[in-house]
Amino acid sequence: MIENTAGQGSNLGFKFEHLAAIIDGVEDKSRVGVCIDTCHAFAAGYDLRSAEACEKTFAAFERIVGFQYLRGMHLNDAKSAFGSRVDRHHSLGEGNIGHDCFSWIMQDSRFDGIPLILETINPDIWAEEIAWLRAQQIAEVA
Asked: Where in the numbering of this chain does the Xylose isomerase-like TIM barrel domain appear (predicted)?
């Protein structure tokens, strides 16, 4: 499993092209997958602040890496600024990404069946965040 990075320091893996190059170097591609961390992507310069921005970002992911490699996601907002290359997680809707991204993810069938892991900072509200995420799925069905 390869997780995208925020791009702090000399970290590799903050561009989708980096992930694609790593995958390309693996002989048995059935044994490789990608986990996208929303805070890392945002900090690396992939906009997630609106449904339209998410569409554009994940269209780039599909074109460069391919959804067939997406095996999981870490869902978290970002304390850090867009493109800052600083990894600072925040609670959903309380950071610079906002709620729209997470609604969009929960309502897009391409993310069905893969682990969506809440990786936010306040354990006191994890149950509320999970309930809110589940409600976004129901909102799309209704």
From this structure: 1-135
